[in-house]
Each structure stands twice: as C-alpha cells, then as structure tokens.
Amino acid sequence: MGMDPLKQFKIEKVAEFDVLGQHVVMTNQSLWMLISVIAVSFLYAFAVRKKEIVPGRMQMLAELTYDFIYGMVKDTTGSSGLKFVPFVFTLFLFIAMINLFGMIPGSYTSTSQVFVTGAMAMTVFFMVVFFGVYFHGIKFFGMFWPKGAPLAIAPFIMLLEIMSFVARPATLTIRLCANMMAGHILIKVVATFIVMFMAAIGAMGIIGILGIGVMSIVTFAMLTALTLLEVFVAVLQAYIFTVLACVYLNDALHLH
Fold first, then answer.
1. Are strands 22-27 and 13-19 parallel, antiparallel or unpaired?
2. What residue spans define the domains of the chain?
3. Which of 242, 250, 254 is nearest to 120 (CA)?
4. For position 48, what pLDDT does the model report?
5. pLDDT tens digits along 61-115
6. How many whole angstroms from its chain centre is CA 169?
7. Backbone phi and psi for residue 252, each to the nearest 5 degrees, phi listed first
8. What is the sign, positive or negative, of the torsion defined by CA atoms of 51, 56, 61, 64?
9. pLDDT tens digits, residue range 22-48?
10. Cα separation of 246 and 168, whole Å?
C-alpha cells in the first residue's frame, strides 16, 4: 500500500465478466461486500442448523446477537416496531461484518465509501417516509408543524424541522463513513511512522539494534491496542447506525 494512508480506500477492478448480455465489473469494494454477505449467511446457517435446547457456542452467539437487536428495537420503537427486527438485524450484521473484514490486511472496508453508507442511509430514510404515510396517511407530515408555537414563527420552525428530517440520511452516511476512514488512517499513519522511526534507529549501530528491540515491544503493544480499539469501533459504529435507524423508524410509528 505504500506510505499513502488514503491508498487503502482506492476502488480497484478485480474481475469482469458478462451476465445475460450485460458487462459486469467486480471491484474490491463490491467483492468484500459479497464476501461479508456470504460469511454472515454461512455463519448463521451453521449456527442454527441443529437448534439444540442447550446451545453450543455458535448457536449461543447467534441467539445473543438476535436477542440484543430484538431488545434494542423494542426499547426504541415499542412493541409495534418489532416488525422491523429482521431489517434492523440484517442491517447490523451486514455493517458489522463489513467493518470487521476491513480489519484484515489486504482487504477492503466498503463502509469507507460514501455511496455505500449513503445507500443504506437512504434506504432507512425512504422506509421511514413510506411506513409513516402507510400507517398515518397525510397526518405523517403533520409532525413537522410545531404544535403550540406562535403562528408568526411556526413556518420557520416547520422549515427547520423539515431540514432536520431531510438531513438525517447525510448524518447517517457521514458518521459511519468518516469513523471507519479515520480509524484506518490512524493505524496506517502510526504504523508508517513506526517503520520510519525504527529504520532511523537501526542506522545508529549497536545502540540502534538495542533500541529496535525495545521499540519492537512498545510498538507491538501500541499497534495491538489501536487494532483492538478499531475492532471495538467497527462493532460500535454498526450499533450506532442501527440504533439511529430505530429512532427514525419510531417516527414512522408514533410521529415523534
């Protein structure tokens, strides 16, 4: 990857082929999204294949993850929002798996691309609008009108409410994309700096060799800590994205 910390986010072609007369190009970004989908599907199919009363480790992990998402949806949207559990569960696993696979050297973090996170954010946005209108009809748009506000300033408040509502996809998009890029850039910059620093120490002879030994231990601990932190952030960002999706879906149910 060289010294450029942004090179790891470059989209590159890995394969191309024809499907039903259409020319299809597979990029590293789409490839790792596909790998993530296959991995999630395989892991859960494997975890629940026996459905034992006393679950094994894989089945227990699958059940705990589902229970966690189920509880999050219920706490955020109420019992009426449980219909969205399959969507939120799929969304969480998809984002989390992409983020975690992005930690593998030589892989690609698809959520570092705005158009990927934007597509997911717009899906949530249109679901909110669709189900809001489906459940409440034209009354859904009434949530933008500030109840009890003076008539003179109510139109301005309504405009702010609409702008805030429309900005939701942008905030979802940028938050996930920026956090994943920032973490990967930090690790790359620190690793590059360490390599350059150790090369400089190595040029100092015997003292340099001893210095490299000490620095190796320190840098290994530092990079391990940063990597573990980024793994935590990868799962955390999947959680934040889905919990905000639940908050927005709650508007479609209860007009809050």
1. antiparallel
2. 7-254
3. 242
4. 78
5. 888 999 999 999 999 998 988 999 999 999 999 999 999 999 888 889 999 999 9
6. 14
7. -70, -25
8. positive
9. 888 889 999 999 999 999 999 888 887
10. 12
Contact 176, 237 (CB under 8 A): yes
* Per-residue tokens: 154: 């109510």
CA dist 6 and 181 (Å) reads: 9
Distance from chain centroid for Cα 191:
24
Task: Give the pair of three-digit tokens for residue 138.
Answer: 């034209």
